[in-house]
Specification:
About 35% of the residues lie in helices and about 20% in strands. The chain is α/β, with parallel strands linked by helices and about 375 residues long. It folds into three domains: about 5-90 and about 210-230, Periplasmic binding protein-like II (D-Maltodextrin-Binding Protein, domain 2, 3-Layer(aba) Sandwich), CATH 3.40.190; about 100-190, Periplasmic binding protein-like II (D-Maltodextrin-Binding Protein, domain 2); about 255-340, no CATH class. Strand 6 (about 115), helix 4 (about 120-130) and strand 7 (about 135) form a beta-alpha-beta unit.
Length: about 375
């Protein structure tokens, strides 16, 4: 049995961080400690190697809290609960958008361009954004040109792709901003942003749990302490993603894009005016036509894309922050119905009708 908690006499928080190449958690915590929002309690921070080690140290009472990438918890929540631990909050993503390392933006790539990405979802988004260029995974490219198998770890893989780019074997590749900064790459970068310049233009939703840091502690951890470390937008992002995608298989997760963020009425109305979006504008008014007094809203966007990038199944919703959990449960039901209907073969109205394939194939 773990020793009794020392929370009532706590004057120092023992916190461990688990870093990943795409989500440097220790950097998030260092930024927090150096900011004006630094917690009142002193933080004794150290780095550990993985989820299992952190869970064991929490269970034994040697740690008070573990900060880690939310992606590490996917599919392992049962282990956490069995150890008597829970997620007590999250830090908002700082740099969730991936970058294209290339001399040219995606719209200005030559027709024969080759772009590499190890993410299945990003390859589909790139094919949707630009026709006529070759979007490949590193393994497929190496097999086509007869190279040795590329590294499996993210940082050596990016170094391998950067060498190919500098030798003009490829025109560009996709990586995360933390890896780009860590390797001090000299090539130009172009962010893959979720908001198109023009309505209906190319957009790139972040990958699931992108740059989202969660904080795990033993049950009944004091809220007064966890609130000093967590952020409201991070808590919202974690809660929505936990409700919506925590049950997805790894295969389905890597074909999904999701964005969760706080929005204010002013920015929503400005966007609605720029894009002539009546539906978005109406979400900022009550039934009497008055602008909502509750300024804070939550924007939730979810999508899957076909392999060739020609078909997108997406769902966008703006909800008031006060009811976002109830709205997310409703959104999950709507999404399940949408996916089920769009992925089944269209029934014939008459026996002579031609076969109609499903709108989107969830297996490809």
């Amino acid at each position: 049995m773990p020793p009794p908690p020392r929370w009532t006499m706590m004057d120092e928080l023992t916190l461990a961080t688990i870093d990943s190449p795409d989500c440097p958690v220790s950097e998030h915590i260092a930024i927090l400690s150096a900011s004006g929002d630094a917690p009142e309690i002193s933080i004794d921070s150290r780095t550990i190697n993985g989820f299992s080690e952190g869970l064991a140290l929490l269970e034994d009472g040697e740690l008070d809290m573990v900060a880690m990438p939310a992606r590490l918890l996917h599919g392992r929540q049962a282990e956490m609960l069995a150890a008597g631990c829970e997620v007590v909050g999250a830090r908002a993503p700082r740099r969730p958008n991936l970058v294209l390392v290339s001399d040219n933006k995606i719209d200005y790539q030559p027709k024969s361009a080759i772009i590499l990405s190890d993410s299945k979802m990003v390859r589909r988004q790139l094919r949707r954004a630009r026709r006529g260029i070759r979007i490949l995974g590193p393994m497929a490219f190496a097999a086509i040109v007869g190279l040795d198998e590329p590294p499996s770890n993210p940082i050596p893989l990016v170094e391998w792709m950067e060498e190919l780019r500098q030798s003009d074997d490829i025109d560009g590749y996709i990586t995360s901003r933390p890896i780009y900064d860590e390797l001090d790459i000299s090539g130009r970068r172009h962010a893959l942003l979720p908001d198109p310049k023009d309505r209906g233009g190319a957009h790139f939703l972040p990958l699931p749990y992108a740059d989202l840091v969660i904080l795990m502690a033993r049950r009944r951890f004091p809220i007064s302490i966890s609130e000093q470390i967590t952020e409201p937008e991070g808590n919202t992002s974690w809660r929505v993603q936990d409700l919506m995608i925590s049950g997805l298989s790894e295969g389905m997760l890597e074909r999904t894009g999701i964005l969760v963020r706080h929005r204010h009425v002013r920015s929503l109305m400005k966007q609605a005016e720029e894009h002539k979006d009546i539906t978005l504008e109406q979400s900022c008014h009550d039934t009497e036509g008055e602008v909502l007094g509750d300024d804070l809203h939550v924007e939730i966007r979810l999508e899957i894309v076909s392999k060739n990038g020609r078909k997108t199944l997406g769902l966008d919703r703006i909800v008031r922050h006060a009811i976002f959990e109830h709205a997310t449960v409703s959104l999950v039901r709507d999404w399940d119905v949408l996916v089920r209907e769009a992925s089944r073969e269209v029934p014939k109205d008459f026996y002579k009708d031609a076969d109609a394939l499903a709108y989107i194939d969830l297996v490809e």
